[in-house]
Amino acid sequence: MGKILITGATGKLGSAVVRSLVRKVPAADVVALVREGSKAQWLSDLGVEVRLGDYTDVESLVKAFAGVEKIYLVSAVAFSDRVGQHRNVIHAARMAGVRHVFYTSIQRVSDDYCPIEGVTASDLETEAMLKSSGLDYTIVRHPLYADVLAMYIGKDAPQKGFSAPAGQGRVALTNIDELAEGGATLLSQPGHEHRAYLLNSGQTWSFADIAAALSRITGKAVHYQPIATATFIAAREAEGWPPHVATFIGDWYRAIEKGAFDQTSRTLEELLGRKPKDLEDIVRDAFKL
């Protein structure tokens, strides 16, 4: 097997993929792409090769991708030129002779149902670029990350309850570490060319279910109050959130309420060789209970 490069290797997802991957393949076969070497000493300590590169700098990417067989492309952050950055990675991969690109996309029921501004359209365009690139590709679709649940419903939800514009919508919350482990398994195996995989917990839960789980864990009643999206956005802006961030999270909630994330898969369970964490474990982790 040739070298496997993980982009965004000091970020939450990328770092988790690296940690999992070095338990499956020799560390010498793993390359970590970072923008700042000063944050990467821990990667070197793992025995991983650290290379510098930036999604906005094609020349740096071509140099970083030399001798690499597979790339795990962690999608660029929202509120940036995601398509342009992904195009640079794909172009550099072709120039460097990379064979296979794995791209992290967002779970969706269909291409046109309840799109999320700043994410869905760029995911679709990136996937189309990969399919026409001549490279082998794998699309790895992720759900809402359980790790950010406290940001969505408030850090004080276990004490005060919470309101959210989710209605009775359901989500397959999944921890980043488990998604990373699933991704590392895909990377370490032969095959998976020209495939799309949905990775999630295999179960969906409503926000009322989340409140009930908090109640069981804390031993006191925790209530969930559905509210309108406009009410949520106004409240977040009053707390000091930038309007574009409040609207962005409101869009995610709108998609949840309309059922855009009410879809399950057993693929992650199969890759892990065990069931992913259940709701109570997810809630305990998210709120450190």
UniProtKB/TrEMBL annotation:
Top-rank taxon, per record: Bacteria
Pfam families assigned: NmrA
Signal peptide as annotated in the record: none
Domain NmrA-like: start-end pairs: 3-262
PANTHER family per UniProt: NMRA-LIKE DOMAIN-CONTAINING PROTEIN, QUINONE OXIDOREDUCTASE 2
Protein name stated in the entry: SDR family oxidoreductase
